[in-house]
């Protein structure tokens, strides 16, 4: 229920921002807006604004729309013809249609600016181990060094280092790392392996390092439905004690054990409500043969030691270019992912539908304000980019038609536009069905 609530909040907010972009520019161009609706279907509440626009909140909060005065939809009085959308010059129509996606992208910039001014807490990227014969070993990195910058850009937290490496690894270039050890700073050259978005989870392993992580108590939080953990009888709040008679005191130790014992039954002991219980669990092998049980650790059960705490933060002015950069980088990553799915270099399993988005919304809200704002920024960018795709029905499809109108000097024939909208609607429905199917597959394991 919590995930659904935050999903509705997130989607409603982003839809309002998107549609307000259309509305604001339409009004500046002199177009009369008949209705501004948040959601579809039955009206729950409405208000007539002084400019003649009806503001509506509807029952189905899965989108929204701005309805403008248009002769193609209904007869228009002679004295209102100049306020119709269809009679606007091409530049005005392009501006109005573009304004929705642009509003989403600008909101993302604002969201990232807020995040960077508030500050993102994390852990210092201190190297724990370096894998032999790895790119990190070739760069002469060693345990105990802290990586403080990549190509001159500060990396005060593990996540900021990960983001920098992930972006640069897509081209597999040689970069300059600034490291610090015993208050001595050194520049080192690291050649990144060329990795795709599907390899993000193994980025540090591919480079050949692990970072220092505080030991986390093995107390469980979320249990995935129909997972090995659920089938074994594990519940949120359980504390893992031992496996096959061997006591394991940290979550990291359990992760290593589970990953290396795919399809192997293990006798485990857990502590539940003050009582020791015996269970049998068999980790399932993922596509790479790594063991998984479908359980998450309770991050509230531990606190980061003071010596490992850090924060990524900028001043109000310095945060502005950083916010634009972050928006640009995530936009490029999103487009790369979409292109990769089309050509087959990125798994289409990464595509999520409303269920996945709702789960992410709930999870991010539980993690705090910064995580939820970051989630909003990423979804807003995705919404903006998807709407700019040259697919009829979407804003990008209208812009494509306007491009042909500019080339021809007159609009495309109405029959061509109608057929294009039918094709676009079919493609959107196909995408929605595919994304929803992915969601269901994830839910059932």
From TrEMBL:
It is a multi-pass membrane protein. SUPFAM superfamilies: PDZ domain-like. PROSITE patterns: PDZ (PS50106). Pfam families: PDZ_6 (PF17820), Peptidase_M50 (PF02163). One of its GO terms (cellular component) is membrane. Residues 192-250 form the PDZ domain. The keyword Repressor does not apply. It is an enzyme of class 3 (hydrolase). Its main location: membrane. Its cofactor is Zn(2+). It is found in: Membrane. One of its GO terms (molecular function) is metal ion binding. GO terms for biological process: proteolysis. The chain crosses the membrane at residues 6-25, 94-115, 369-402, 423-444. It comes from the Bacteria. Its EC number is 3.4.24.-. InterPro entries: PDZ, PDZ_6, PDZ_sf, Pept_M50_Zn, Peptidase_M50. Keywords: Hydrolase, Membrane, Metal-binding, Metalloprotease, Protease, Transmembrane, Transmembrane helix, Zinc. Belongs to the peptidase M50B family. This is Zinc metalloprotease. The gene is rseP.
């Amino acid at each position: 229920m919590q995930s659904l609530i935050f999903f509705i909040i997130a989607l409603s907010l982003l839809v309002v921002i998107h549609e307000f972009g259309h509305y604001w520019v339409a009004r500046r161009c002199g177009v009369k807006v008949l209705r501004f609706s948040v959601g579809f279907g039955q009206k729950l509440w409405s208000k007539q604004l002084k400019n003649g626009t009806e503001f509506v909140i509807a029952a189905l909060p899965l989108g929204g729309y701005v309805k403008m005065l248009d002769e193609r939809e209904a007869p228009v009085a002679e004295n209102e013809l100049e306020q119709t959308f269809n009679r606007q010059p091409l530049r005005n129509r392009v501006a109005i249609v573009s304004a929705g996606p642009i509003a989403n992208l600008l909101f993302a910039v604002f969201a990232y600016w807020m995040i960077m001014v508030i500050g993102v807490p994390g852990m210092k990227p201190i190297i724990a181990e370096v894998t032999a014969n790895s790119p990190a070993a070739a760069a002469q990195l060693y345990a105990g060094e802290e990586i403080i910058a990549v190509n001159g850009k500060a990396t005060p937290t593990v996540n900021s280092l990960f983001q920098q490496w992930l972006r640069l690894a897509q081209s597999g270039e040689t970069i300059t790392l600034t490291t610090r050890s015993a208050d001595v700073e050194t520049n080192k050259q690291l050649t990144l392996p060329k990795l795709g978005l599907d390899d993000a989870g193994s980025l540090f392993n591919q480079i050949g390092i692990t970072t220092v992580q505080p030991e986390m108590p093995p107390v469980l939080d979320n249990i995935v439905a129909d997972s090995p953990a659920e089938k074994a009888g594990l519940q949120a709040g359980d504390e893992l004690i031992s496996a096959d008679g061997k006591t394991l005191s940290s979550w990291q130790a359990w992760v290593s054990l589970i990953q290396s014992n795919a399809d192997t039954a293990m006798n485990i002991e857990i502590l539940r409500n003050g009582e020791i219980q015996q269970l049998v669990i068999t980790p399932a092998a993922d596509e790479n043969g790594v063991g998984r049980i479908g359980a998450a650790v309770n991050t509230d059960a531990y606190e980061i030691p003071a010596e490992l705490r850090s924060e990524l933060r900028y001043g109000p002015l310095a945060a502005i270019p950083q916010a634009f950069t972050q928006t640009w980088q995530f936009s490029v990553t999103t487009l790369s992912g979409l292109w990769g799915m089309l050509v087959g270099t990125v798994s289409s399993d990464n595509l999520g539908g409303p269920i996945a988005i709702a789960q992410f919304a709930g999870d991010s809200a539980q993690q705090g304000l910064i995580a939820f704002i970051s989630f909003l920024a990423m979804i807003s960018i995705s919404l903006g980019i998807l709407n700019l795709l040259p697919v009829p029905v979407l804003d990008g499809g209208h812009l494509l038609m306007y491009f042909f109108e500019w080339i021809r000097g007159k609009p495309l024939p109405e029959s061509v536009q109608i057929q294009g909208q039918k094709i676009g609607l079919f493609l959107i429905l196909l995408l929605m069905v595919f994304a929803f199917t992915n969601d269901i597959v994830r839910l059932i394991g």
